[in-house]
Amino acid sequence: MTKRQILPVSQNSKYKAHKNNSKAQKKVKKRKGGK
C-alpha cells in the first residue's frame, strides 16, 4: 500500500518539475528573442 501511495506523489512532483522546466525554457527563449 505504501508503494502505491508513493507512486502518484512522485509522478505529481515530476509533472510539476516538468511544468516549471517548460516555463523556464519559454522565458529563456523570450529573452533570446528580445536580444
Describe the overall structure.
This protein has 35 residues and is an all-alpha fold. It has one helix and no strands. It has one helix at 2-34. The termini are far apart.
Shape: rod-shaped
Protein structure class: mainly alpha
Beta content comes to: under 5%
Number of helices: 1
Alpha carbon gyration radius: 15 Å
Which key terms come to mind for this protein?
mainly alpha; 94% helix; 0% strand; rod-shaped
Topology (elements, then pairings):
Elements: H1 2-34
Describe what is shown at a glance:
This protein has 35 residues and is mainly α. Helices cover 94% and strands 0% of the residues.
